[in-house]
Amino acid sequence: MTVELLIDGSSHTGNYSATCKSCGDCWTGQGERLGLVNFCPAPVIAECVVHVKMGHGGDPLAVTFSERFRLWLISYWEHENARVRDDQAWRRRMAIIQQARAK
Q1: Chain segment 46-62, per-residue pLDDT in tens
Q2: Nearest to 38, CA basis, from 16, 18, 10
Q3: Where are the domains of the chain?
Q4: CA of 36: how far to CAs of 39, 43, 54, 76, 87, in Å?
Q5: 47 alpha-carbon distance from chain centroid
Q6: How far apart are CA 5 and CA 26, in angstroms?
Q7: Considering only CA atoms, which of 45, 34, 38, 35 is closest in space to residue 8?
Q8: What gap in Å lies between CA 30 and CA 56, rounded to an integer?
Q9: How far apart are CA 98 and CA 19, in angstroms?
Q10: pLDDT reading at 75 higher than 80
Q11: In 1-103, which ranges are continuous DSSP H helix?
């Protein structure tokens, strides 16, 4: 039997809730804080996987995201991708500077 979970959450507060439609369990929490105003949405997804593995014997999992949570995921990945690109650009600039100094 497929275990159905619904995840809701807000990127502004980092608060989330998860509801297992299969057994009725419901829990809340807050995403991992990243800096002053950003939160990582990954903990609730990991909690859902653990809930299924531990509480439902590893049955197949079907996850539904609320619109707010879906937007949080998009915002998070866009922010993280921008951070990674900035970090890569900084590393390239530093490599160029080090090469110039070595000459």
Answers
A1: 999 999 999 999 889 99
A2: 10
A3: 3-102
A4: 9, 18, 34, 14, 19
A5: 11
A6: 9
A7: 45
A8: 24
A9: 53
A10: yes
A11: 42-55, 67-102
Task: Locate 41 and state its tokens.
Answer: 């949405």
Amino acid at 79: H
Give burial (CB, 10 Å; 0-12/13-18/19+) of 87. Answer: exposed
Bridge partners (DSSP) of residue 28 are 17
Enter the pTM of the model: 0.74
Please enumerate in sequence order all residues whose Cβ is within 8 A of that of 41, keeping only pairs 6 or more positions apart, or say none: 9, 11, 16, 31, 69, 72, 73, 76
Residue 84 has pLDDT above 70, yes or no: no
